[in-house]
Design goal:
Number of domains: 1
Structural class: alpha+beta
Strand order of the largest sheet: 2-3-4
CATH topology: Metal Transport, Frataxin, Chain A
Strand content: 15-25%
Helix content: 40-55%
Number of helices: 3
Order of helices and strands: EHEEEEHH
Radius of gyration: 12 Å
C-alpha cells in the first residue's frame, strides 16, 4: 500500500485545517462541518472517529484544491 493512501488521526486533520485558516462551522450528528476561505463547499468529516479514512481525505483535498503530495509532506512534517 502506498504511503499516500492511509488514514490520518482526527487531531492531525483538524490541525491541518486550522493551518489553512479553516474554522468549525457546525456539527450535524457525527459529522463536523468546517468552512475554509476560498472554497465553494464546506469540508465535512466524522469528527467523533479516531481517524479520518483515506478516501475522505482525498475527497476533501479536492474540495480544498490541495495537492495530495503537499498534504502528505505537511502531515509527515507536523504530525
Amino acid at each position: 500500500m502506498s504511503k499516500f493512501y492511509r488514514p490520518v488521526s482526527t487531531k492531525c486533520w483538524i490541525k491541518f485545517l486550522k493551518s489553512l485558516d479553516c474554522h468549525f462551522k457546525r456539527q450535524k450528528s457525527s459529522h463536523h462541518v468546517w468552512y475554509c476561505p476560498g472554497t465553494k463547499r464546506s469540508v465535512v468529516f466524522r469528527g467523533e472517529e479516531k481517524e479520518i479514512p483515506a478516501f475522505h481525505i482525498k475527497t476533501n483535498l479536492k474540495t480544498l484544491e490541495i495537492d495530495e503530495v503537499k498534504f502528505w509532506e505537511w502531515i509527515d512534517k507536523n504530525c
